Amino acid sequence: MTVESVSAETFARESLAVLTRLTESTRADVSAAAGLIADCVREDGVVQAFGTGHSQALVLELAGRAGGLVPTNRLQMADLVLHGGDHPGVLDDPLLERKPGIALRLYELAAPRPQDLFVVISNSGVNSVIVEMALHAKEQGHRLLAITSLAHTAAVPATHPSGKKLVDLADVALDNAAPPGDALLPLPAGGAVCALSTLTGALLVQMTVAEAAAQLLASGDRPPVYVSANVPGGFESNLELERRYAGRIRRTAS
């Protein structure tokens, strides 16, 4: 790729092409993923969403946003401090995600119920805390939806002692179609620029939520969805819906 071809226009063209292909290639997997979410909602479960690094953007896309499902909960490393009583300095450790036992603590702090669905998001699918969370969720009998890059995870070795990757543990896996390393535009002297997985991941999340809502409507169930808190009555309406899941979903200023 030449210097001239690394541009806003090139990224827009290339990323839009991937998004278009994704809408067709993942149709069956999105339907299966939506089935997991719809079943969870029908069973009075909560969607427990977890990711680290920039995958947290997709957790926020799923959990607690306007137009999204109310029974969703965000799991994050900060829970160790916010709910687990750890000193804030623990989050300064750049290797925290590689320490064994962290996912187990996060799971215990969330106190999920058996009918809860876990959605674990990781571009590489090999991060230790990601695999540990997926393993523990499956050991506890939860269904597991993964959002990952199949190209990236196939290109790197497993790092968890189990030898497993996220995709190996999922009941359904959605491929975000991001290239190994995530960046889309190669640079002339090596390396690449402009990550793709947030765009494709957000598309997959919203497609899945839309299909889950469709499946709930088809079975006569009303999807419990958030109204924007910035429209009249929205905040009050959301509080009423949240009462059904009191103590099971966390909504903080962050």
From TrEMBL:
Coiled coil: none annotated. The keyword Protein biosynthesis does not apply. InterPro entries: RpiR-like_SIS, SIS_dom, SIS_dom_sf, SIS_GmhA/DiaA_subfam. Pfam families: SIS_2. It comes from the Bacteria. Residues 37-223 form the SIS domain. Keywords: Isomerase. One of its GO terms (molecular function) is isomerase activity. This is Sugar isomerase domain-containing protein. The lineage of its organism: Bacteria, Bacillati, Actinomycetota, Actinomycetes, Kitasatosporales.
